[in-house]
């Protein structure tokens, strides 16, 4: 077996561990403290924000336009509408401002 | 018989409801799957290895980091550790998702965690929040197309990678941030949403500039979660939820 194969296998095992690990730890407790529950409720917004925020550091006019359109569409539309509007704005703006 | 047929029909309906929701994810991740395949071969992976990595790890960002480090001939254990670090945010998702799918049979749960990605978790969490059950059929409908397309497109990227035209003009590098911003905005009715988003944004930007990627993800996430835990419970709305 090649080194690459072992890297892939070990990466797969550790990744699966992150995917079940949180559940295995939390499920050991019978009751969840309200503060822990408040923390868990904050997880989606907290994690997903970190995948977007650093992008703002090197966002140019085209990227900002796309993000602003995404926010505006979110006031009325669903996820698919948001995504398509943001992507369309990005592709359009990049034809002009690279 | 009738009841059985109805319940079966409902399960099928749930599955296709999930499939419909998976489509933006399939579209947004397609360029990355193809790009991953192309970069993997470029960094010394065989087509089979690129395909295997997508099939077994199924985590886009971590796969990109993995092949990048591999191409730089970093020690194998460090490549594995970096994949683990990029994927560490799943621990938080896993703790949250467990509350929604604990009633499934164990094997279904084991499979459910295997296909859990950022959008998979976020869409399932949004469904649970709207008061609808997170059933196995619906969850599988949401996740299976993403997985199947991801693996196939990785293989295609590995085989045909050099044929991609100008990826910048097509906006491919910025599609995922747009999609993730859409997901963040989808949670804006949650208690403490704005303070959590601000805390995570600021912390992740600072960490990105100091500690560096990929640690900014875990550090930023922990900042937002800690803030929600520290603020008095009556702000977080726990116990008032339907």
Automatic annotation (TrEMBL), chain A:
Superkingdom: Bacteria
Keyword terms: Membrane, Transmembrane, Transmembrane helix
Transmembrane segments: 6-26, 38-58, 64-93
InterPro entries according to UniProt: Brnchd-chn_aa_trnsp_AzlD (IPR008407)
Protein name: AzlD family protein
Species annotation: Mesorhizobium hawassense
Automatic annotation (TrEMBL), chain B:
Principal localisation: membrane
Name of this protein: Branched-chain amino acid ABC transporter permease
Mode of membrane association: Multi-pass membrane protein
GO cellular component: plasma membrane
Ranges that cross the membrane: 21-41, 48-67, 73-92, 136-161, 167-185, 192-209, 215-232
UniProtKB keywords: Cell membrane, Membrane, Transmembrane, Transmembrane helix, Transport
Family according to the record: Belongs to the AzlC family.
UniProt KW Transmembrane helix keyword: yes
GO biological process: L-valine transmembrane transport
Superkingdom, natural source: Bacteria
Originating species: Mesorhizobium hawassense
Cellular compartment(s): Cell membrane
InterPro entries: Brnchd-chn_aa_trnsp_permease (IPR011606)
């Amino acid at each position: 077996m090649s080194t690459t194969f072992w890297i892939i296998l070990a990466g797969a095992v550790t990744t699966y561990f992150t995917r079940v690990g949180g559940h295995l730890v939390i499920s050991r407790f019978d009751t969840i403290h309200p503060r822990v529950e408040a923390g868990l409720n904050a997880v989606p917004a907290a994690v997903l924000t970190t995948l977007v925020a650093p992008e703002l550091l090197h966002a140019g006019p085209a990227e900002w336009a796309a993000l602003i359109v995404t926010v505006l569409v979110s006031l009325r539309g669903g996820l698919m509408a948001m995504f398509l509007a943001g992507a369309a704005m990005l592709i359009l703006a990049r034809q002009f401002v690279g | 018989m009738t009841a059985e047929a109805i319940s079966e029909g409902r399960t099928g309906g749930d599955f296709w409801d999930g499939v419909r929701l998976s489509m933006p994810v399939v579209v947004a991740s397609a360029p990355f799957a193809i790009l991953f395949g192309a970069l993997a071969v470029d960094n010394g992976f065989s087509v089979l290895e690129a395909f295997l990595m997508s099939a077994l790890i199924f985590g886009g960002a971590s796969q990109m980091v993995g092949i990048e480090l591999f191409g730089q001939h970093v020690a194998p254990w460090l490549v594995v550790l970096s994949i683990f670090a990029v994927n560490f945010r799943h621990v938080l998702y896993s703790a949250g998702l467990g509350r929604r799918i604990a009633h499934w049979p164990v094997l279904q749960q084991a499979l459910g965690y295997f296909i859990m990605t950022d959008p998979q978790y976020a869409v399932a969490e949004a469904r649970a929040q709207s008061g609808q059950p997170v059933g196995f059929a619906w969850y599988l409908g949401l996740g299976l197309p993403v997985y199947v397309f991801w693996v196939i497109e990785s293989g295609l990227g590995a085989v045909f990678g050099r044929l991609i035209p100008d990826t910048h003009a097509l906006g491919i590098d910025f599609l995922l941030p747009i999609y993730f911003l859409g997901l963040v905005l989808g949670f804006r009715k949650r208690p403490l949403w704005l303070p959590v988003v601000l805390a995570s944004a600021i912390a992740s930007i600072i960490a990105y500039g100091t500690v560096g990627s990929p640690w900014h993800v875990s550090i930023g996430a922990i900042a937002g979660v800690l803030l929600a835990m520290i603020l008095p419970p009556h702000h977080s709305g726990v116990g008032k939820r339907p």
